[in-house]
Predict the 3D structure of the following.
Amino acid sequence: MKKPKGLVRTLLICFVCILLSVFYSAQAFGQVIRITINQVLESLDHPQLLLLDVRTSENWQASKIKIKGAVRKNPANFDSWANDLPKNNFLVLY
C-alpha cells in the first residue's frame, strides 16, 4: 500500500520540528551542552565566556597546565558558588 505524499511530508516536518525543539529547549533551560576543545579555543576571546576550572584540588595542584583567565572553583563547594555565576554568560566547566 502506497503512503500518500502529504502524510510523508507531514511526518518529516514533525520530525524536524521535534529535533529543533529538543535542541533549543536544551539551550533555553540551561542544560549541559558538550563542546569540543576547538570550540572552546575559538571562543576564548568572547566577552561572555566564563571558563571555570572545577578540577579537584589535588588534580589542580598537580597540574602544570592552567588556562589563563580561568576561574578556579572547588567542585566540592558547588552549592555555595553556583548561584553566584552570571546567568547570561556562556559557562565552560573543565
Remarks:
- Residues 34-93 form one domain.
- The first strand starts at residue 49 and ends at 53.
- Residues 19-28 have pLDDT under 50 and may be disordered.
